[in-house]
Amino acid sequence: MFSDLVQKSAHALGKALRTGFARAGLIMLSLSLTTTAQAVWQDPLNTPALATEKAHEALLLDVIRVDQRLVAVGGHGHIIYSDDQGASWTQASVPVSVTLTAVYFPSGDYGWAVGHDGVILHSTDGGKTWSKQFDGYKANEAMVEGARAKKAKAAARLEEAEANGDDIAIEDAEIALEDATFGLEDALYDLETGSTKPFLDVWFYDAKRGFAVGAYGMFFHTSDGGQSWQDASARLNNPQRLHINAISLVGPQSLTVAGEMGMLLRSDDLGETWSVQESPYDGSLFGIVAKGDKQLLFGLRGHVYESLDGGVVWNEIDTGSEQTVLSGVVGKEHTLLVGNAGSVVVFDQSLSQPEATTLEGRKGYAAAAETSDGHFVLVGEAGVMRLNAEAELIHQTISMAAGDL
Amino acid sequence: MSEQKHRYSSEPEHYILSKETEPALERFLFHNRGLVLLILAALTLLFGYGLTKVKLDSSIEKYIPLNHEYIQNYLVHKDDMKSGVANVKIAVEAVDGDIFTKDYMETLSKINDEVFFVNGVDRSGMQSLWTPNTRWMEVTEEGFQGGPVIPSTYDGSPESLEQVRQNVLKSGQVGRLVSNDFTSSIIDVPLVEKDPETGEKLSYQQFSHDLEEKIRAKYSQDGKYRIYITGTPKKLGDLMDGARQIAVFFLIAMIATAVLLYLYSRCPKGTIVPILASLTAVIWQLGALALLGYTVDLYSVLVPFLVFAIGISHGVQIINGIAIEAGKGANHVQAARKAFRGLYVPGMLALLSDAMGFLTLLFIDIGVIQELAMAASIGVAMIIITNLVLLPIVMSYIGISQSGVAHAKKTEAAEPKLWKAMSFFANGKVAPVPVVIAVVMAIGGYFMSQDLKIGDLDKGAPELRADSRYNLDNDFMVSNYSTSSDVLVVMVESGKEQCNSYKVMDAIDRFMWYMDNVDGVQSTTSLVTVSKLVTKAMNEGNLNWSALSRNQTILNTSIQRAPSGLINPDCSMTPVIIYLNDHKAETLETAVAAVEEFKSQYDDNVDEKYFSYTIAETQEAIENGEIDSVPVRFQLASGNAGIEAATNQVIADAQDTMLIFVYVVVFVLCFMTFRSFTAVACILLPLALTSVLSQALMTYLGIGVKVATLPVIALGVGIGVDYGIYIYSRLEVMLIAGKSMQEAFLETLKSTGKAVSFTGVTLALGVATWILSPIKFQADMGILLTFMFLWNMLGALILLPALAHYLLRPEKIIARHKKRHGDIPPAG
Fold first, then answer.
1. Which of chain B's residues have a Cβ under 8 Å away from the Cβ of A362?
2. If you count Cβ atoms within 10 Å of the first and of the last residue's Cβ in chain B, which end, N or C, has fewer?
3. Is 60 exceeded by the pLDDT of residue B763?
């Protein structure tokens, strides 16, 4: 009987020793495996966004409502959508992992998202899946081309002016040529550096015609649904190539872009020709919202201006907040301007009676959208936040699923 | 005693010393008693001198597995990341109201000034609301605007307090220097490495005392404010204070042992001499280690307890032997010699098995455990001399008192009912009971121990108790500030001056988001966080710019003012700091596995040399096609969680190995002694049951397998085997004498049962005092060792005879004895 016992314990000991050796072997094996594994760094422009269930808690920079659906974009190539007024979100399939700054759906299924490194993404299924149409490398090439054309045009103008002997025209043309030369040099430098410039906003008139605007005066146009994008910056009077922060429709045919150093331009022919507007402010403007005849223009350090005559005369209004306003949304009942450090300014139906509040957490908000049931969804540095129609915080857990990537 | 009885055998076979050497050794020692005493006295003086050199060591290196890959990686960059390690945070809380009151600001200012002058503070790096380096900043049309949070115009008026409140909000310090609810604020105090007054390593204990006296006691006495202090130096200071209390526990253990010893021997001499002998062993052990250059740490400070208790348990056997021989009429010298003769070999064997058991701890590659093994082994070796040699020689001079002799006689003659009852465990009718119970317990214990966890399970500083001052302070910090005390740091290496190149930064950015998505990760921060934040700030605070730029000039600008700890001097390494929910083993494993997984995808496994390349050399290598781009690799690990992850891995790997080795060692020793598998099974099976049950106990008490509890297994088994050896060797003698199993066991109990139970209680008493220690792991060790010592004793007294009933064949034992030794009876 006990010899059995001895045998068994000897067996157990042997087994234990063998497991020990096997484990040691396994460790050695895994070590050798890790040293032979091949690792490749991929450009984020070619790296699909990581599957995540936390995008709704991370940096989001824009949100839009498309029929019943909300679509939001943000850091790390995140695009998420919600079909239940923002209570739960699903991650869309995105082929890049760069920071996305803006999203726009002219209607229904067709949408565009833009972001850093000059990326433009396109969706034809209401925001569930996205494909890349354009990126900073293409943008740089297009811009070099555009800059060359601009320089050639300026040179031609100078020649013409010299031929005419018009001194003032010669001086103007010389300045224009100088600007164009610098522009080309910068474009060539950017081409060398890589895709460095972010798009900051996107707007489409229909499924074909649209604009993508961004840093350093980037202004691209498409008329074939984004299959090809042209550098259209020559249409704007922006010789210093200031950042263009926003593009939006403020009347049936009236497009506005707002940007650095009080830049305010308007087009009444859907972007073909642009005229400089008298700006009430010389700091950065981040956007404009309109309802009826009334428009609100907003920018740095809480500066908000109202206009009742389509943007000819602007009057500064005191909102009670000194925080930078980054975006706004016109709702059925209320209009909201959102911005840094948790600031939200609530206007009434007629865009008057501003009331400033600070949302708890003091996180910055980059955009807002009204849901189909009249609530609001805000997005910003801490992800999604929900407000009710009275712009009060809805304390409810927001959930997220990774989606089918 | 007649001279005829000189003829004896040392059977059962003890092969460690042949029987011929015994009398020779005995003759030598007892014929030169004076000389031996003189030599031992000289040694005691020498080691006593060594005692003055004993130093309490607070270096952290000994507590971590220095040879583990993670730690090796950490050591490479240790100096670059030292800011943050030696750092203390002092929170000042307003009990009523918030911090924006005149009185609070005044008090904070006073505390700030007082801390400034505490010895060891790195004054230039201090930060609080009152230091000029705490600034607010905002973007205006003209660019940045900023200033100190407390403006120079501050005068305590409501207006200026409102100004401070606005500045605090703009400074982004909410959650860092100011609590989320504005009721407290922090003074962040970096420490210098060397004491500026003495030039020696800064004493954290002194620093900790300074803070307690000059800050906590002084400013919290009127009840208006509460002070909370956290940080590694404070923790180490508290631990050192805790270690001092060990002296009190030792005193308690010694007094309790003396009382027990007197009750046992009823002889003042027989009480004092073993205690003095055991103390001598302690002095020798501490002195010898100090002379060998070892320092005492929080683990080896416990060794004197073990040495003392083991010394007493062997001393008591000698005293018992002497009393019995004296009772038979032997004079002082004869009694001492006889006792020496009878106990020398089993004593040696037991002590050797203890020492060997301890030495198996050397397999664990952690400094404190190895030094614990050394200290305990040396201590046990010292006991061989002090309690097996010094003790009988001293007793041969002073002899045992009459009361002791009478008591020993009475005990020998008595036949206690308890022993009588217990002898039935060796009887066929009762034996199944303990065996069945043991099997049930073993199975139950086994299933329960399946949930045994690796690592520290409590939150906060696991070295200290959950309700200790330090951990309460830590709780306060964690719940009121946006910080976690569990930090895993991954060191990202690149070529020189390339840690901020776009590719490296992008890889870090991806890594951080990857880790943010891992369960148990709260948040991550790194140079990339700084770069994005500054890039955003440089673009008017517009959130759209929170991204890495591909333009190197912009990247460079964005990290110009990055904290020094986030970038090493030649920009070849930048750490990623990962905040974890807790430091449970699963959390650590998940996080570390995720890092490894990411590493396997993104780490450039290029030759080491490329990591020391300059920008130009890297460019050349890229052009030559040797490498694709700037090399980058993610190195685990630093931070308390990183070090703990490494420790857990070492422990998980070592625990089975060590358990196997310690059992192999006791198996071999027992087998060499008794030359019988069944004997070994009788001795080891109760031990194995204790091992299983102690794991179940650990699960039940929520104690994980960690640096502190791993040695317990070796100590428990190594020392626990003594009982079995004593009981079994007696039992065998009685069986050879022809007694039945039950009779033999009764005789065994009568002669050694009392000594064995006394030993068990003494040992348990010695370690039980640790349970009172403010240091959590010492308390854990105390609980487990107390359990193991007592349970092993019960196992030897109850399970061993029952197993013997089933496993032993007395006729075989007798036959084997006869074959070797004829009819010479074994020594007994």
1. 169, 174
2. N
3. yes
